[in-house]
Amino acid sequence: MADIIKLLPDHVASQIAAGEVVQRPSSLVKELLDNAIDAKSTSVKLLVKEGGKALVQVIDNGCGMSHGDARMCWERHATSKIGLTEDIFRIKTMGFRGEALASIASVARVEMKTKRVEDEFGTSIVIEGSKVISQEDIAADTGTSIAVKNLFYNIPARRNFLKSNPVEYKHVLDEFIRCVLANPEIKFALYHNDEEQFLLEPSDLQGRITDVFSGTKKSELISIEEETSIIDIKGFCGSPESAKKARGEQFFFFNKRFIKDPYLNHAIVGAYEGLISKEQFPLYVLHISIDPSQIDVNIHPTKTEIKFEDEKNIYQILRAVVRKALGGILNSPEMNIGFDDNRFMHHELGKNPGFESENSTVSTASRSQRNSWDDLKFEYSQKRNQVNQNWEILFQDNPKTEMQSEPETVRTSSVESELAVSRSFFQLHQTYIVTQIKRGLMLVDQQAAHERILYEKYLRALDKNPVASQQLLFPKTVVLSAGDEQIMLEILDDIRLLGFNISHFGKNTFVVNGLPAELHLGNEQDLLEEVVETYKNSKTTENHKKQLVAKTLAIKAAIKRGIRLQAEEMNRLIDELFACQEPSFAPDGRACLKMLGLDELAKMFDSK
Asked: Rounded distance, CA 447 to CA 182, Å?
């Protein structure tokens, strides 16, 4: 039998590697910007078209490449960063594997121009699908320009997985912002579809933060600087007052490399305990220096994850340092504790802190409540086609039903015979609506009930049944981050269906001219940030994302506990609740209503 194992052709192997390295246009941005920084550039320009699908080009004034290097850099595993095995554990540069450029060339059309300062002529090279089309000497400025065109042109199935232009551009922005915050001493420019988006002059970190996040003031930034035997920390965190509903402005840089680490993020958020609510997210940009031998940056193709030798102690140090900085500005003796490096060196740390789930689920109590109401809901569902009728009949006795003798008939009697005998309501502690029903009492949580009503109303609105908008006397201006601006543009049509009259003013700015009729807010900024945050952090289908937006808005707009209601308002609330598809539960699974039966009431007073 003939041998069946064989080596893959180079172009096939490169495309397999590209599946890990190049996932979307933002992957190109990351790799090309990393190379520009490694080339010791002082000025870097990024040009993007159609969210990066048509073009991603990086132009730098770095050291450039020789004629031979310009050709060799497109080969797989060709790199100037690693020579010995030991070098893998002493990595200080951004790129190092030699996979990125070869992977990019296998799935796109590439044009590169490069020149070293000591060379008279530069080199131009054109590659399509890993095949070199041309290479020639040209006149060029010192540095390198790499243009990647028509990503995945030769793999249509991969191209079909790309999202809309605004979504892809949002990911490009994310990579760009990470890079400029990691290197504030470098000049950066970004152009999208030939329009200037950012022009950032060299600055210190504080200046770069305020330049990137236009709504952030220097007075809101708290300086952090600490040297320990494990890590050195420099950077800024935001004051508690500046915390936002969106979590986007949170950055860790280890040896100038951006990383994602929920565990260490928990340390920072924990330092704000008691200062901000659970729905708020503090800003932080922290540059952390660590011995390269104490970390492994080679555990993930995107190089955004790091394996630490001493992660628990780093967690404790970060939490203590941020807590100390916050205590200093707040003049709080409880928070402004002295930092003792030694206590982290031989300290037995406990288990990793727990993480709260971000997804709302129906609690055990809610499921129990659901079971107790199954019969009532089933029978009410038989009447849903009649929801437009006045449901006063639900509060009337039905003598014929009461006279039924067969137990089965009584058990499955219609919901009309179960609900209250009179339409009288009263409000308990400005929180619950109480009414008498035939078998006891029914209590309705006014906030949960209104959330359910609005949630279903907004879902209908998203299904092209727009909500009425109430014009504001004075329009409000909302400033979002550059990435959130793209998300808002993506969902703007849906937001307008919900009753918002919003116009895009450019440069991360939106003008709110009107709100849904029942929504009365003083802080439209927080609301829109929360809506965008909900949408962008959902990894489900587009339809489910819209449901999450509807839920967020319903929770914001609903009447809250502690609000006094008039009799007619309680009446209308109950009417609208029982016209809902799911009247028993709020969008997050909390019970809207509970029933206390006569038997339970009797037991309370039964002394035997």
From this structure: 45
Chain centroid to Cα 442, Å, comes to 39
Nearest CA-CA partner of 116 in 75, 62, 36 = 62
| Beta strand segments in 32-159, E | 43-49, 55-60, 109-115, 122-128, 131-138, 143-149
d(CA 443, CA 432): 6
Q: What is the pLDDT of residue 406?
A: 34
Q: In the numeric block, which tokens belong to residue 194?
A: 């030939």
pLDDT, mean of residues 415-419: 45
C-alpha–C-alpha distance, residues 162 and 304, integer Å: 21
DSSP 548-560: HHHHHHHHHHSPP
The CA distances from residue 47 to 99, 188, 192, 483, in Å, are: 23, 11, 6, 16
Burial zone of 107 (CB within 10 Å; 0-12 exposed, 13-18 middle, 19+ buried): buried
Greater model confidence, 196 or 333: 196
Is the pLDDT confidence value at 183 over 50?
Answer: yes
Residue 256: strand, helix, or coil: coil
The neighbouring-strand residues paired with 109 are 128, 149
For residue 429, CA distances in Å to 34, 267, 414, 436, 562 come to 60, 39, 32, 17, 7
pLDDT computed for residue 15 by the predictor:
62
Q: Which domains does the chain have, with CATH numbers?
A: 10-200 (3.30.565.10), 208-344 (3.30.230.10), 365-608 (3.30.1370.100)
Cα(237)–Cα(287) distance, rounded to whole angstroms? Answer: 11
> Cα–Cα distances in Å, from 280 out to 269, 513, 556?
10, 26, 14
Contacts of residue 95, defined as CB under 8 A and 6 or more positions apart, other chains included, come to: 31, 34, 35, 38, 79, 81
Q: Give pLDDT, residue 215.
A: 78
Mean pLDDT of 406-425: 45
Compute the distance between CA of residue 64 and CA of residue 263 in angstroms, rounded to an integer.
Answer: 39
pLDDT at residue 435 is higher than 50:
yes
- Least confident interval from 77-91, 114-128, 223-237, 443-457: 77-91
Phi-psi group of 512: left, alpha or beta (phi > 0 → left; psi -120 to 50 → alpha; rest → beta): beta
Structure tokens at 560: 């809250």
Type of residue at 504: H
Contact by Cβ (8 Å): 308, 314:
yes
Residue 300 per-residue DSSP state:
S
Helix (H) or strand (E) holding 284: strand 284-289
Residue-level pLDDT at 606: 78
H or E element in which residue 440 lies: strand 440-445
151 close to 53: Cβ distance less than 8 angstroms? yes
Which structure tokens are listed for 125?
A: 């090279």
Q: How far apart, in Å, are the Cα atoms of 159 and each of 24, 78, 79, 483?
A: 9, 27, 28, 22
Strands 509-516 and 501-506: antiparallel
State the average pLDDT over residues 87-92. Answer: 51
Q: pLDDT digits over 253-288, tens only?
A: 999 999 999 999 999 999 999 899 888 899 999 999
Q: Rounded to two decimals, what is the model's pTM?
A: 0.68
